[in-house]
Amino acid sequence: MTQVIWIVLAVLVTFSVGYLGYSKYLARFLELDADSETPAHKYEDGQEYVPSKKPVLLGHHFSSIAGGAPIVGPITAGVIWGWVPALLWIAIGNPLMGSVHDFVSLSSSLRHEGKSIGYIIGEYVGEGGKNMLLWFAFLTIILVVAVFALVVGIVFNSYPEVVTASLVYIALALAFGVYLYQLNGPFLPGTVLFVAGVFAGVWVGIQYPIALFEPTAGRTADMAVTVLIGGSGSWVPGASALGGNTAAWIPVIMLYAAVASALPVWVLLQPRDYLSSFLLYAGVGGALIAIIAGTLLGSASQPLVVDSSIGAFNGFWGAESAGLFPLFPLLFITIACGTISGFHSLVSSGTTAKQLDKETDARLIGYGGMLGEGLLASVALATLAVAGLPEASGGIGAALPTFAGGGGIVLTSLGIPASFGAPFMALVLVSFLLTSTDTAVRLGRYMMEEIVGLPAGQTTSGFSVGGGLRSTLGELGRGRYTNPVIQCVFAYIMVVSGQWTVLWGLFGGANQLLAALALLAGTVWLANWSDDKQLYSTGVPMAIMVTITVLGLAWLAFFQNIYQTIIVGGASGVQLFATVVQSLLALVLIGLALALVKKGYDNIGTVRDRGPAGAVEPGDD
Predict the structure, then answer these.
(1) Helix, coil or strand: residue 208
(2) Could you identify which of 285, 312, 399, 591 might form a hypothetical disulfide with 72, taking C-beta atoms 3.0 to 4.6 angstroms apart as the criterion?
(3) Which CATH class, in words, describes the domain spanning 2-608?
(4) CB-based contacts of 528, cutoff 8 Å, min separation 6
(5) Cβ distance 325 to 317 under 8 Å?
(6) pLDDT, tens only, 377-406
(7) CA–CA separation, 77 vs 348, rounded Å?
(8) Where are the alpha helices (DSSP H) in 412-499?
């Protein structure tokens, strides 16, 4: 049988070549200068623009981009098409496309005052293109918040231990922020003390698990869980589809995200992401080391080989029980964040660009951070290979327990009991998700600030209403405290509708399409910067992603939804409504992408036809 270590080695080889070779070329190509003033210094305000130490910012960036998708996607794709196609897309696509996407998005934002990709493309193709992209990004953010809050609720229901552990590390993060930024405590001793506290929180969580209502996961049946409210929670909105405990956690998570997104970054975002990064590094790095040790020493509780239920290649149409999906283009949409993700461009050109201390830090944080997410995706694929999956169409309900359960098996190679390792890996997943969720809400506010209009370095509370309906709506939409509420309300409505299939499909399509548009923004920026700049590094991945996304969304809209669900399946009622909405949104996304690509192509052609005299300096307003 095939050993799981080959999955790890393949990724480590291609990622090492990418970082040591390709990223170094890109850094020279982008002319990063350690002495140039970054937006974090130029607009430093103690709120959003805050120069950060490289390890602290790497922790924030990595934690923010690595949500649940790089775990769910590879596991789902591995089950449907086999582990080999999934591995190849991660190992090859990440260093050539995803890491380039993140690196260029961050670098371009640095040269445009820390503004978003929407602002950047608007500088060159016009205000209409800017607003189209910003609105698209804002709607994508709401989908991200909805999906991630739902996944956290599912994990909290399956692993009540993680609830307590999460509360401990959030409290420690608040204390660490005060220690670091208000008391000016020494960095390294503080890191040791507070990181130790975070890991101790895992033990506290195992001893004192918490739930809002009676958890429904089978593994909690004999567990001494402290139930805060009691009963089944059947009256909670969404309980019929999700279960009372899961449904009840979702608004709590969204409330946390709204509050956290409104706080200054030094209060919670920076210290929490830095501390949680050690959990993430331990989870991803520990699993990689455990796979190597378990293979070489045979120290795992069971052989680290690919389970017989997981095929190497299940054919172009995938596993029959999954519904027969074509490998091209759906594999490349199913595995999004482990290879390339549009959400990362919002993080790179949102919170990260506003905190970068030196331009040269962008190579490690942008390119290297995305490679880290690829390692997470490979670990997720390895946990699937070890644990196996009896149901080919288990979806998210099967993917999440597989990651924690398989991770627990892998960590036994290091002498860690599976009873501790599985909850720890579940906490690793939640750490990714919580940081991504409130960062997404903060980014959504940034998007709206640019749509409505707010100078760089300025914020507004959202309560200064008056001056007419348009002025009031603008103030509410861009407000530090009001905008997060608006986002979370719409996200919550989508979650409690119970239409998970629609929600996940929209998220996947919107996310990958946003990646194509971010690469378009980078290509347009480079074309306008200098006539000598080659456009292949961003232009080729952009063309690939536009093709994949358009074909994938067309397949979902016309074949899977209209033909299979409506014509053949005879959908009616709520299912019919959801299917029609999904199809219409897919077609709107396709039209939006093609329109923006046309605008970008026309701009590039105009600039290059003018020759060197037509080029502008990067960030020239």
Answers:
(1) coil
(2) 399
(3) mainly alpha
(4) 123, 124, 603, 607, 615, 616
(5) yes
(6) 999 999 888 888 755 444 555 566 778 888
(7) 26
(8) 418-452, 469-478, 482-496
